[in-house]
Design brief:
The complex is a heterodimer of chains A (503) and B (522). By secondary structure, chain A is of the alpha/beta class. Helix content of chain A is 36%, strand content 25%. Chain B is globular, with a radius of gyration of 26 Å. Classes of the chains: A alpha/beta (503), B mainly alpha (522).
Chain lengths: 503, 522
């Protein structure tokens, strides 16, 4: 790693009407390093990146690239200067081929040539794929790689990765990391934004922490520990998070939900599970192992072809989400943007939606009832918004997730299914959502908690069900110790044959 | 939350003043009615002004009044139907290819020449007959004539103040108002009306015709003739808010009209002359076409909701085949009727206004209440913005889609009845032609996004009226028939450009800058 800085930003200030988004922020990037940019949602990470890529224009400060002062005026301009960005949402055309996606908008357009070059490029990324297939044919991870390949291939000096790992599973993350290490060797400076603290320690060399638009500091990765880092990010002591414990189960807790060998071809094979009142059951397993599919079957989003579901000992027929809601089941879906928020509606309307659906549209909640409902949950979940009439699409990810949670809490469910509720949101919000889950359990709500982060599943759950290849591979009863994580990984790796031991 | 209701004071006061104005206006109307029932002549507004506005003494008024009755008598036909309306009606009729089919009610020939005022048998002249209590009656008409505009103006100003107070209470700043599409639609409408007023200073005149018991005037004509589109556009707005389009509305208009006519003259070979009769009960003539249209709307809803076809494709089916159904219903013939209750739907009057206006007001109010006073509107928006998320929130998207398409079908049916009643015949090929594009345009001008999402029914009404105003405007300018469509397109293009995102943002930025500058001075 050379000591030469390829990018230096000094005293950057950006002011939006009424808010100082960035206040005197310094940032430097050396050639061949991975520099993590950290901060809660709204800390100014995105604004800094947008300033660098020419989306926002700075009010003060200097940007020096390769010893020359630059003023990016548009994203196109930034790309021409060698600053490439890969955004969280994949900005590619799913209907074009991989090769076309990499070369779209550039001078080369002969299919023979671009196919060959794209194929070579993807090999550099350890991906041996058919570049003439449409992009939509491949998984999110591959699509992510393609967008990185596209960004790198434009002679980039600086590569900005904005939460590239949020939709990848562990193996795919490792693949991405190996690509990032290759790029480091080529002398490309990488700015890496993520909410996963482990990944920062795994790949980054240095980190810059922002809070409320101000610089907290720039550190070497080995310099500070995780707890220290979180404390610096959110500015308060985070012992609270790491001291979360699952709620104690009452001995006489009744059986709340029982699924008896439910399954659907191609998704899940014969899953049976039981949840008691006030219990928090974690679902562990890789992406695509059937966690989400099971949850969707219980909620009626997909109909199981076999098996039956009983609630409070009574068999129920759940054909569609509405039936599940009427039976006291609530479901926060995995893809918040696609299945959760109604972007153009206000927070108030988003919160009241499920309650209203339960009542039917001919029995509307009065405006005052809606306001009371919205205000109640905005306070209870401390949703950061000036008022309930703000569009939900304009909120940060964590706050959107809280609104969706509020929508379901408002229906006063007996069973709450949360599919990846903490994905793509910052540490503070994550901790709050975990705390809320545990509090709900104390109130007697049964919670099913699905997450790719084993750590938080172990921290919050009373019981963990491990999924593998569309079937239940094992079940572990709490309380858990430091060994649990290894045992879960073992079960995931070996399948039920080797690790199905139940405690 | 406390609600401030201070705006109610000027609003109620303004409405009271307008009510008084209407009371005065009614007096003049009654006078006209009385003259008409006695002498079968319509007094023109000009002659009333001449007789009652001056400072004439009783005898002079008597003489002037008698002269006015006599004078009007001679020009009865001309006075009965002011040129404005005749011209517009005729041109409008020509436009829709219905000139022959449309009897113009206000030109009904006065069958018996009015008895000369003097030769009234008992020696009383017109003045004595109309004003049995002499000067007192004259004074009251005189007052009414003088007070009417004052009260109307004051009432309108108070209502305007109330509206401004509501805007202030909602804390809408000027910049965000300028960002709204509805504002621009309203500005465009006002601009067109101002141009009309410059070209024809009597544009806003409204007069009462005792022969039909209706008010006449360009404004009323615009609203009257826009009512079919307004009614259909109510449904179309909801369809667009769902992210769809309904191309079949024009065809449903034809089906509804054809079916109604079919029921009026069940077998044309037997009932082979049009007349004031109906083969089936009138209630069936109304209900059956509407039910048919609801069914056809449900068919659309089924294709879009259950089979998840693209709305534009799904409704294309009925757009094409609907007219075929109408042709089958009428055996490919065009036939007419003279049944008077049916005539009332499109040409009659209620509360001094043409019936279509009353029908459209009722329909608009009903749809608005249905959509905004229940949670249906929110559900429609929610499904339109994110169907998958709405479904997972427990909303039955298929049901919402079905209701919206059925409602649109029903509204097209109503429009079809109005249309065929206007021409008193069925026309499977031309009835409701291009209504789908006009209705979509009305909704889009009103600020509804074609990609689905937030919608505004109030904006749609403005949009529909704009479209009709442009047509009227074109006739007033005397633009040749060939250029009409191009001219209409030109104005609509200007309106749409004014409403486009960049222009609105630019304007709102400008106002912000100006406001900031003003703030700096202060």
């Amino acid at each position: 790693m050379s000591e030469k800085c390829i990018l230096e930003m000094k005293g950057i200030e950006i002011e939006f009407p009424g808010v100082k988004a960035l206040d005197g922020v310094d940032f430097s990037l050396r050639a061949g390093e991975v520099h993590a940019l950290l901060g809660e949602n709204g800390a100014g990470k995105s604004t800094l990146i947008k300033c660098l890529t020419g989306v926002h224009h700075k009010d003060a400060g200097t940007i020096i690239l390769d010893g020359q002062e630059i003023t990016p005026v548009s994203p196109q301009h930034a790309i021409e200067m060698g600053i490439s960005t890969v955004f969280q949402e994949i900005n590619l055309c799913p209907n074009l081929t991989v090769a076309e996606n990499i070369f779209v908008g550039r001078k080369e357009f002969k299919h023979r040539i671009i196919n060959k070059r794209a194929s070579e490029l993807m090999k550099r990324f350890h991906l041996d794929i058919d570049v003439t297939r449409p992009l939509s044919y491949y998984s999110t991870a591959v699509q992510q790689m393609v967008s990185i390949a596209r960004a790198v291939d434009i002679k980039a000096k600086i590569l900005i990765l904005d939460e590239p790992t949020s939709s990848l599973d562990e193996n795919e993350v490792q693949l991405l990391f190996s690509v990032m290490r290759d790029l480091k060797k080529d002398g490309i400076g990488i700015i890496f934004i993520t909410h996963f603290l482990d990944q920062i320690y795994a790949i980054s060399d240095r980190m810059t922490i922002l809070r409320n638009g101000r610089l907290v500091g720039c550190y070497d990765v080995n310099e500070i520990g995780k707890l220290d880092l979180v404390t610096k990010m959110i500015g308060k002591d985070m012992d609270v998070i790491f001291n979360l414990h699952p709620a104690d189960l009452k001995d006489d807790a009744k059986n709340m939900l029982k699924a008896d060998s439910i399954g659907a071809p191609g998704a899940v094979r014969e899953i049976s599970l039981e949840i008691r009142e006030g219990e928090l059951v974690g679902f562990a397993g890789l992406l695509g192992s059937g966690r989400t599919e099971t949850a969707e079957m219980i909620f009626g989003a997909n109909r199981p072809t076999q098996g039956k579901i009983m609630i409070k000992g009574k068999e129920v027929d759940i054909r569609k989400p509405f039936d599940a809601i009427m039976n006291g089941i609530a479901f926060c879906p995995e893809d918040r943007k696609r299945d959760g928020i109604i972007g153009d509606l206000s927070i108030r309307e988003n919160i009241m939606l499920a309650v209203q659906a339960k009542r039917g549209f001919m029995h509307p909640l009065s405006r005052q009832e809606q306001n009371e409902l919205a205000d109640k949950y905005i306070n209870a979940l401390s949703i950061a918004t000036p008022d309930a009439e703000k569009k939900i699409g304009e909120l940060s990810g964590g706050n959107q997730q809280k609104v969706i949670l509020a929508r379901w809490l408002a229906t006063q469910p007996d069973v709450l299914i949360l599919d990846e509720p903490t994905r793509g949101i910052d540490v503070g919000a994550k901790a709050e959502i975990q705390r809320l889950m545990i509090e709900m359990c104390k109130d007697g709500v049964s919670v099913i908690f699905i997450s790719s982060e084993l750590e938080e599943v172990i921290r919050c759950s009373n019981r963990i069900i491990i999924m593998r290849d569309g079937a239940k591979a094992g079940e572990l009863e709490g309380p858990f110790d430091s060994n649990t994580q290894n045992r879960i990984l073992q079960i995931i790796a070996e399948g039920s044959a080797g690790g199905g031991e139940e405690k | 939350m406390k609600k401030k209701r201070t705006f109610l004071i000027p609003l109620l006061l303004g409405l009271a003043l307008i009510a008084v104005a209407i009371f005065f206006f009614g007096k003049i109307c009654r006078l006209k009615d009385k003259v008409y029932s006695n002498y079968k002549v319509s007094l023109s507004d000009a002659s009333i002004a001449e007789v009652f506005n001056g400072d004439l003494d009783e005898n002079a008024v008597r003489e002037a009044f008698n002269n006015a009755v006599k004078k009007t008598d001679k020009n009865a036909a001309a006075a009965a139907a002011p040129m404005d309306d005749l011209a517009v009606e005729a041109e409008a009729a020509a436009e829709e290819g219905e000139a022959a089919a449309e009897p113009v009610p206000e030109t009904e020939p006065v069958t018996e020449p009015a008895a000369p005022a003097e030769a009234d048998g008992s020696g009383k002249d017109a003045f004595d007959t109309i004003f049995p209590d002499g000067a007192k009656g004259v004074q009251s008409v005189r007052n009414a004539n003088r007070m009417f505009p004052i009260f109307l103006g004051a009432g309108a100003i108070l209502c305007l103040i109330a509206a401004l107070m509501v805007l202030r209470a909602k804390k809408l700043d000027f910049a965000s108002i300028m960002r709204s599409k509805i504002t621009w639609a309203a500005i465009a409408e006002i601009l067109i009306l101002i141009v009309c007023l410059i070209v024809r200073p009597d544009f806003f005149n409204i007069s009462y015709q005792p022969s039909t018991g209706m008010l006449y005037g360009s404004i009323i004509d615009i609203i009257n003739r826009s009512s079919e589109i307004t009614i259909i556009a109510m449904g179309m707005t909801l369809v667009l808010a769902l992210g769809g389009t309904d191309l079949s509305v024009g065809a449903l208009v034809a089906v509804s009209g054809a079916f109604a006519l079919k029921l009026l003259r069940w077998d044309v070979t037997i009932y082979n002359t049009p007349g004031d009769y109906s083969v089936y009960p009138f209630i069936l003539v109304i209900i059956a076409p509407l039910l048919t249209c609801i069914l056809m709307g449900c068919f659309n809803g089924f294709l879009v909701g259950q089979l998840q076809l693209q709305p534009i494709i799904a409704t294309l089916i009925l757009m094409v085949s609907g007219r075929g159904v109408a042709q089958i219903l009428t055996n490919g013939k065009q036939f007419t009727t003279l049944y008077s209750p049916f005539r009332w739907i499109g040409q009659g009057s209620a509360l001094f206004l043409p019936t279509p206006i009353i029908i459209s007001v009722i329909v608009v109010a009903a749809v608005m209440i249905f959509v905004r006073k229940t949670a249906f509107g929110t559900f429609v928006e929610s499904v339109g913005i994110n169907r998958s998320a709405s479904r997972l929130s427990g909303i039955n998207a298929k049901k919402v889609i079905m209701i919206v398409f059925a409602l649109t079908g029903f509204l097209s049916g109503i429009a079809g009845l109005i249309y065929s009643s206007r021409i008193m015949s069925c026309d499977s090929n031309n009835a409701g032609l291009n209504y789908e594009t006009d209705a979509i345009l009305a909704a889009v001008i009103g600020g509804t996004n074609m990609a689905g999402g937030k919608f505004s029914l109030a904006g749609t009404i403005i949009g529909s009226i704009i479209i009709r105003t442009i047509v009227t405007f074109v006739y007033y300018f005397g633009i040749s028939a060939e250029a009409t469509m191009a001219f209409k397109a030109l104005i609509i293009a200007v309106v749409i450009v004014l409403q486009s995102e960049p222009v609105r943002n630019w304007m709102s930025k400008r106002t912000k800058v100006r406001e900031a500058a003003k703030g700096g001075v202060r």
